[in-house]
Each structure stands twice: as structure tokens, then as C-alpha cells.
User: Fold this.
Amino acid sequence: MRHSIVRFHVPNQPPRYGRMQADQSVEILDAPPWLGGMPTGESVEGFTLLAPCLPGKILCVGKNYKDHAAEMAGLSGDGSVPSEPLLFFKPPSAVIAAGDTIHYPEQSQRVDYEGELALVIGKQARKVRREAAQDYIFGYTIANDVTARDLQKRDGQWTRAKGFDTFCPLGPVIVESLALDAQLITRLNGKVMQSSTVDQMVFDPAFLIAYISAAITLEPGDVILTGTPSGIGPMQIGDQISVEIAGIGILENVVG
Assistant:
């Protein structure tokens, strides 16, 4: 049986991992499931969901949807689709949970949302063949690749623009399987801004794992953000942003 994996907190206890049950209780695991966590026999209610994993590395892919690459021409002057995946990192310190606040940095005048499918790695991946790559995916969650667009253009590289604290909302859960054509919808204050299906990626998840692991060893719990479709745009303080992927759920945050 496939489960939704969560990381959660209850008062006066450390964060733990578990499996969401049909009655919305959580069956507690003794460790992250990608590290062999097993049920303890306990369950809990009255919990607060946290980001569903604590990745050691967050690899991200730029311009992985053709329509998004085209719209970037008006923002960066380059609307070309890369011939190979365009990789960058976000720091683990950028991760926040569904319901947490995205902080608008004082250094920026334009902060954008980018709704994305995220892969969670299940076992160490080094020089993985594409045809074997699926075996290295533990599951799937939702990400918002928040970006200080003006700083991205000004800096000439993306570390600061993509790496501010709170710039990587993840969650709310990890699912162990997902339809290849799952729909992704991003809403800003309830208005649909992005709508696509994840099969529109230029480089699919298996290709990405093979490509990345040829250079960088991926460890269990690492996360890959697979790129965003067209429709990106700015957020303002007070806005509510949600990213929904069919089969996973809704990642919702406010900007503060």
C-alpha cells in the first residue's frame, strides 16, 4: 500500500516522520522512510505539519518547460531552451513548510513564485543509468522556487536570488507514486497563474537523475526541483500563493 509521508511536530516532542492515515491521524515511523524507518506502533493526532524532508542538497533545474523558457526572454533576454539541464542549488536553510511565511527581502523589489514538482531521492545515486533512475526516486512533493527576479538579473548568477531564507517552500506531503501527466496549478490570491502538466518537461525526472548523478552524488532525502511552467510573476507582501499538483495536494504560503 502506498502512503503519504509527512514530517510533523507535536508539543514538547522533537519532529518525527510518519504515514498519513485515512482518518487523518499519523502512524509514527522511527526514522525517515528513505533511511529504513519503520512503524513504531504508535499514532498521533493534533500535530503540525513541517516540511516533509530536510534535504542535505536541493538541486534545481532552470528552463525545463519550453513555454517558461520563452517567457524568460522578456525577463533576461534569453528565451532559448538549454541543450542540457541548467542546474543550480538552493540551500537547505531556504526550506519552509506549507503554511509558513515567505519573507520578502528588503534587498529586492521583485519576488516571483515558481510552482514546481520536486523529487525526493530514496537511495544514494551516483552515475545512475537513465533506465534505472526511477528506482532512486523515493517520492514526489511540491515546491515553490521563490526567486528575487531583479537580483537574479543583477547578480549574473542565481545563488542569492534563489537562496534567501524561506525561498523554498516544500510539502505538504510526499507521495510514493504520481501520474506522469499530473496537473500543476499555481494560484495567486485565488487566481490561476500557472497551469500545465508535468509531462511537458524538456528533461524528465529519469534524465535529470542520470544527468545530475553523473557529476554529483545524490543522497537519500536530497531534493530535485524539476522546473516551472510559464506564468511566473511577482508577489507582494500580503499575497497568498498556492501550488497544487494532482495526486499530492496543495502547498500554500503567504508573503510577509
The CA atoms of residues 54 and 221 lie 7 Å apart. Helices lie at 66-71, 73-76, 149-155, 159-163, 205-213. The chain has a mean pLDDT of 95.
